[in-house]
Write a structure and sequence with these properties.
The complex is a heterodimer. By secondary structure, chain A is of the alpha+beta class. Helices cover 43% and strands 21% of the residues of chain A. In chain B, 44% of the residues lie in helices and 18% in strands. In chain B, a hairpin with a 7-residue loop joins strand 8 (273-280) and strand 9. Classes of the chains: A alpha+beta, B alpha/beta. Chains A and B meet through helix 2, helix 4, helix 10 and helix 12 of A and helix 2, strand 4, helix 4, helix 10 and helix 12 of B.
Chain lengths: 427, 423
């Protein structure tokens, strides 16, 4: 175990990075403000690593990680953690998968033991796969098939991307989920679940030297893997607007737009994030004000700039009022977006956006788990564990001219995909 | 002045809030949605909605207004350096809420849009149907959003009267958490309270609810579903009951954790639902015990039948010593996460104030939980939960599923089919 470096994490805390010989990075923040610890394992694997016909495997595999291991019978992982007062969960997205245990400080050795165990000694059997396939199929029914927003989002990415695996929904397509085999899962485990493809993030009331000894003992013997080179397809440039118009069993019209947006590490991502705040951040933002408050053509409008390793989408979601058509929503949205050229963003709008982002960044850090998530995410996507806070300086350094430039570059009709939903009421 | 302070210098953030003991249950007949509309009109005061939003953004503050059955909370989370302007704005809003009819019209239209939009959410439709019937004729069965008719009937005078009666010093508690000194907390709290009329404390208007009689089914009729949201409910224990902690521990065994009986039987062994849980709600009067799952349409009837079997077995046979011990360990151990931030610690104290709980309720929480015996837990189940007296709510295509869902329920006293537009 070697100490690699340390970074400030706000005015009072530090991130220490240590590395085992097998390549496992350990990021520790000692924060004694409460007698709790968040123990998270971030793997650099997500649905970006999937291919047609095998979509959903990263997420399904995440479910399987809670099953039997060589030394733990089925159910024992959850039972032992619960007995210790711990809460555990996991999440998978385009670029990453992570596992979290929030636990009382005294139970930390148990987390080290259990997480090292399943990193290398998971048992993959047909019976468990069959049950988890059903669970995931039900999760998909709940979040996609019977959820209008989930189904629209899936359609947006399937339409906006032609080659890149960001087109696949992380939960997987239903036909693929039911077809995944034990052999697929074993291959996935061997390929991606290795110490040199993982980052361990531990935040809370920890004694560093004791923790490092424990980690060395339990993870040290796990061999590093030869990681295959990524085979993610480059997405070709978009040449023209894409538009899908469909009916859905919903009460009101909806519009979802995806503009091509830069990767999170790209210099334009910061001004675009600020521009999103100016347009969609809160009830005083331009689009919310115009569509929801002034014209009342919509009951909600929000935006989100994709924060991914590769270029993705700036998503805009608008829910229509009463009998408004999706086409009317497009016109109303375009009117506001086109105004950016005629009525440039002013210093006051920029300052409001900067303050909103500062507040939301700090809100993310209120718990040990929130801090660990911010660190793990930033490390896996950007390679900078303290990026959530260092980006605040980038926001402050951004000018209105930067926002105008990025608006002109991104807000182009030929760079967008529109999903227009006409309601067919469901009752 | 009622003031709760929880200090922490870990982050440069402060949350300044004020809660009034007034909510949906306090609305006059025919004005469903008035409590929420009144709170929203507060946010639109002080020079108008746009001015308020820009002032909040300019100082790095976020204001939320939350209306529940028996309480309304205005909470402003702000960068610590901006505490003074945030306190000034909140004070102005409480002093001079919006009274403009045109703005009220906008609030009403947005409330109606939220009601319509909510019909897309099957989980919410199921939960609403369950509470509507479980608490039929009782304020706890009403929806905080109100109803289309109730919202249409609201005029500015209703809003003014509701605010004047309920947004008073006697009916308020101020709460402050985060990077702030006690002296500063005292000062900003006094400023907020000084902006309010003295008023009088208002007693809670809702009587104890009546338990259901017989097993009853409501189907919210919705086509093109691949999944059936299922809720089962009856009354639980009152949080002030001596055996509340016994039922809390028994519930943890039944459906309150990831290794609970419901999760094991429904998710882990059969894969029938992504989630399967049960919970006890707390309120100012006795509240609900509920169970939730969401199986695929083809598994819905079997899943419902299994849930009812599990409920009957829990009632009949109780829980074992080993199950109780396991759950007590979890509940006691995980309690650290109920108090790990100033906001959570503050929330506990606020809950104690609003629900009029004993002074030592949270201080003795772990002790009382750890003292529960198997006999206590099993007696509490039998006292409070009666598997033959409950409501079952489903969101499903009634033409296709009414027969099989009814059959899965066993002997039914009633089966009701409703449209998604019942509020």
């Amino acid at each position: 175990m070697r100490h690699i470096d340390s970074f400030p994490f706000g005015p009072a805390l530090n991130i220490e990075r240590h590395r085992l010989d097998n390549g496992l990075d350990v990021l520790i923040v000692a924060d004694p403000s409460a007698p709790v610890v968040s123990y998270q394992t971030w793997f650099s694997v997500g649905s970006r690593h999937e291919r047609a016909g095998k979509t959903g495997i990263a997420h399904l595999f995440e479910h399987l990680m809670f099953n039997e291991t060589e030394n733990l019978p089925l159910g024992e992982y959850d039972r032992r953690l619960e007995e210790a007062g711990a809460d555990n969960n996991a999440a998978t997205f385009l670029d990453w998968t992570y596992y979290l245990i929030n636990l009382p400080q005294a139970a930390l050795p148990l987390a080290v033991e259990l997480e090292s165990e399943r990193m290398s000694r998971l048992v993959l059997a047909e019976a468990q796969l069959e049950s988890e396939r059903e669970v995931v199929a039900n999760e998909r029914r709940e979040t996609v098939e019977d959820d209008v927003d989930g189904s629209i989002n899936e359609l947006l990415f399937l339409t906006a991307f032609e080659e890149h695996s960001y087109r696949f929904p992380t939960i997987g397509l239903m036909n693929d989920i039911v077809g995944l085999s034990v052999a697929d899962c074993r291959a996935f485990y061997r390929t991606h679940y290795a110490p040199n493809n993982a980052k361990l993030v531990v935040v809370g009331d920890v004694r560093r030297d004791e923790l490092l000894r424990l980690i060395d003992t339990h993870y040290g013997p796990i061999p590093r893997a030869t990681l295959a080179a990524e085979q993610v397809q480059h997405e070709p440039p978009q040449r023209a607007e894409r538009r899908v118009q469909i009916d859905k069993p919903t009460e009101t019209a909806r519009l979802t737009v995806g503009y091509r947006s830069p990767a999170m590490a790209h210099p334009h991502h910061v001004p675009l994030t600020l521009l999103n705040e100016v347009l969609f951040g809160g009830r005083g933002s331009r689009v919310y004000r115009a569509l929801v408050e002034d014209t009342e053509i919509a009951s909600d409008a929000d935006g989100f700039v994709g924060n991914f390793r590769d270029p993705s989408l700036w998503e805009i979601h608008v829910i229509g009022s009463d009998d408004v058509t999706p086409q009317a929503l497009v016109t109303a949205l375009d009117d506001v977006l086109e105004q950016i050229a005629e009525q440039p963003i002013d210093e006051d709008e920029l300052q409001r956006a900067q303050n909103r982002l500062e507040l939301s960044s700090l809100q993310d850090l209120e718990t040990a788990s929130g801090k660990a998530e911010a660190i793990g995410f930033s490390e896996v996507v950007l390679g900078e564990p303290a990026a959530l806070l260092t980006r605040l300086d980038d926001y402050r350094a951004t000018t209105v001219a930067d926002l105008q430039r990025v608006a002109a570059e991104v807000l182009r009709p030929d760079q967008r995909t529109l999903i227009e939903i006409t309601p067919t009421r469901s009752s | 002045m009622n003031l709760i302070v929880e200090r922490s210098d870990v982050l440069p953030l402060v949350t300044l809030g004020i809660t009034f003991r007034a909510g949906r249950a306090d609305e006059p007949t025919g004005r469903a949605g008035l409590a929420r509309a009144t709170a929203q009109m507060v946010r639109r005061g002080a020079g108008g909605a746009l001015n308020v939003e820009h002032r909040l953004d300019r100082i790095g503050a976020e204001l939320s207004e939350h209306v529940g059955l028996g309480a309304t909370t205005f909470s402003c989370e702000v960068l610590a350096r901006s505490l003074e302007p945030a306190a000034a704005l909140l004070t102005e809003l409480l002093e001079a809420p919006c009274t403009d009819e045109e703005e009220l019209g906008r609030v009403v239209r947005q409330g109606k849009a939220a009601l319509v939009q909510g019909r897309d959410d099957d989980s919410m439709l199921c939960s609403r149907a369950l509470r509507r019937h479980l608490f039929a004729g009782h304020p706890h069965g009403d929806r905080v959003l109100g109803s289309l008719e109730g919202l249409d009937a609201i005029v500015a005078a209703d809003v003014a009267a509701f605010g004047a009666r309920h947004y008073t010093a006697a009916n308020a508690v101020v709460h402050v958490s985060g990077a702030i000194s006690v002296a500063d907390a005292d000062r900003v709290a006094a400023r907020l309270v000084d902006a309010l009329p003295a008023g009088a404390a208002i007693p809670y208007p809702a009587p104890p609810p009546t338990p259901p009689n017989g097993r009853r089914l409501v189907i919210v009729n919705k086509q093109q579903r691949q999944q059936t949201q299922l809720g089962i409910g009856t009354l639980g224990a009152d949080v002030r009951d001596d055996d509340y902690f016994a039922l809390l521990a028994a519930n943890a065994v039944f459906g309150g954790t990831f290794t609970s009986r419901l999760m094991r039987e429904i998710r882990s062994e059969r894969g029938w639902s992504y989630g399967a849980s049960s919970s006890l709600t707390v309120g100012r009067v006795r509240e609900a015990f509920t169970m939730w799952t969401a199986p695929a349409v083809e598994d819905a009837a079997d899943c419902l039948a299994l849930e009812l079997e599990l409920l009957e077995a829990w009632h009949r046979d109780g829980i074992s010593d080993q199950e109780l011990s396991q759950c007590q360990s979890f509940l006691v151990g995980s309690h650290a996460f109920e108090i790990d931030t100033p906001a959570k610690r503050l929330q506990q104290k606020l809950e104690r104030f609003l629900l009029e709980l004993p002074e030592d309720f949270h201080d003795r929480y772990l002790e009382r939980l750890a003292a529960v015996t198997r006999d206590d837990a099993n007696a509490a189940i039998r006292r409070h939960i009666h598997p033959d007296d409950l409501w079952i709510a489903c969101v499903a295509d009634a033409d296709d599923m009414q027969s099989e869902l009814s059959e899965a329920c066993g002997a039914l006293a009633e089966c009701v089919v409703e449209s998604v537009d019942v509020p």
